[in-house]
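To make this tangible, we now present a fold written out as tokens:
***
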Amino acid sequence: MPISTKFQKRINELVADSELKNADLAKAGKFDYRSLSNALVYGIIPTTSTLIKIADYFNVSIDYLLGRTDKNDFFEMSNSTFQQRFEELCKEKGVTHYKVSQDCFFDKSNISRWLSKGYLPTLEILDMITKYFNVSIDYILGRSDYKD
């Protein structure tokens, strides 16, 4: 599990601003209390799906939540899924799934799980893919229509 002091600081700030108890916040945001607690205390970055729920609850970009940007002007505008965006980006760049997995150094079987079962990649793989396609995490996850 990745750990980030930037993420820990940002999540603590957002939670403090919410004025809710952690258990109530987790319930309201429909994410796991243990994941929230681990983030607040240790800076452990949760799974991609939990990270999305936290970002959705606070209406912030994932890059903001992770401390990668200080811009807090996120506007959710997309109806796309990760799977749709991944396919679109492969077509735009003219690459196969296999080429993406080779260039980003992860197993091609991950892609079939994403596309056929609706799974999401880990944050580490998402990071590699976003750099490969030069897009934001929120864009590839279908949370925003802004590529950067």
